[in-house]
Amino acid sequence: MIPFINIPPLSLGPLAIQPFGVLVAAAVALAVWMARRLSGQMGLDRAVLDRLMTWVLVGGLVGAHLVAVLLYFPQSIRRDPLILLRFWEHLSSFGGMIGGLTAMAVFMRYVSRDLSRGDALKYLHLIAFVFPFSLAIGRAGCAVVHDHPGSLSDFPLAVSLESEAGQAYAVSTFSKAELASVPIPEQAFHDLGLYELIFLALIVCPVFVILRQRFGADFPFALAFVALYMPVRFGLDFLRVADVTYLGLTPGQWLAGSALLLLPLAARRLSP
Known about the structure:
Elements: E1 10-12, E2 15-17, H1 19-41, H2 46-72, H3 74-79, H4 93-111, H5 117-145, E3 149-153, E4 159-160, H6 164-176, E5 188-191, H7 192-215, H8 221-236, H9 251-269
Antiparallel strand pairs: 1-2, 3-5, 4-5
């Protein structure tokens, strides 16, 4: 089993640098760097790309927060409505995808209206290609702070709760999930952020590289991401113990299932 890792924040005077925040910032930096580097190979206007990336990042942040609060933590709004404005609290990867795509659509429709449909699709393909690499770094942040706990397991990749830090985590996390009892030290749990990191790093990202090498930069990577990622995410969410559910499914499962159902329609819309 994998040892429980607990990385404390780094104190720099009055500032506390959280490991999750560092990795999220690294994920954003990687996405921007990859997109700018590859844009030249595709003959894209870097100035347009920079503006588009700004829109996508801002839209992604807003969407990530609002979806997290509205779908995962709706009870927090009743206690403190201002939580809707604290965009650094509670983030959802699905919300980031929805917000980023919405911002991209608005940008293409109203800001860069002179772009041809073909050029607009090239920007979409580029951002969709770099996205899983960025998401993998973000999931590394989730794995470090263990914020997506799954059920107890003796699976070889499960994270051990044997250490003192693991037991402290178990007491707070699994008691909040209203399990019958707190796990004993010999047990371990499915860390779903870690599982997604492994899947993205070992499957999705290499497949994307192969697809780009074989079919070129104009391949519809957004469709490929939905086809690869959504079924796995839907299945993994059955292991979650702390997420709210609606009719027995997590918000992530509803959104993943919806994306898969809309995949044929999206394929027709994105066809040349």
